[in-house]
Amino acid sequence: MSIKSIVNQLIKKYGTNDPFKLAEYMGVLIVFEPLGNALGYYNKHFRVPIIHINENADRKLQIFICGHELGHYIQHEDINTSFLKKHTLFSTDKIEIEANTFAVELLLPDDLFLEQNDSSFTIYDAIEENGVPKELLSLKTIDGKKILP
């Protein structure tokens, strides 16, 4: 099953694309803590899934971090991920790309682009509103096509 399909099923099942609400509904604990240069990480402790988010990160970035780490929970549940660091946010590691893709598809659902009546609304407005780093925009697809090359 594709990452987009997994995301769409979660949004349909829980009625939200908010990663914080999804984590709550799925029983994933979220902890805000000082992590230095690390943005966040996911782990399981005594079978309890936990998303750790840097309390000093910008609120919009925290939304993306939560989505990314939720992607690890959904796709790599039994792997304790290493710290997501600022300089590794754009990692070429397979599980990091999958988690980034999950977060991008979660935070930028297709409906966001298909239902916009304001012709001045752009993809860049969408990523700004939803905390998605512009460097990851190339991971977004609509109808199986990447929106940017």
UniProtKB/TrEMBL annotation:
<protein>
    <submittedName>
        <fullName>ImmA/IrrE family metallo-endopeptidase</fullName>
    </submittedName>
</protein>
<dbReference type="InterPro" id="IPR052345">
    <property type="entry name" value="Rad_response_metalloprotease"/>
</dbReference>
<dbReference type="Pfam" id="PF06114">
    <property type="entry name" value="Peptidase_M78"/>
</dbReference>
<feature type="domain" description="IrrE N-terminal-like">
    <location>
        <begin position="23"/>
        <end position="137"/>
    </location>
</feature>
<dbReference type="InterPro" id="IPR010359">
    <property type="entry name" value="IrrE_HExxH"/>
</dbReference>
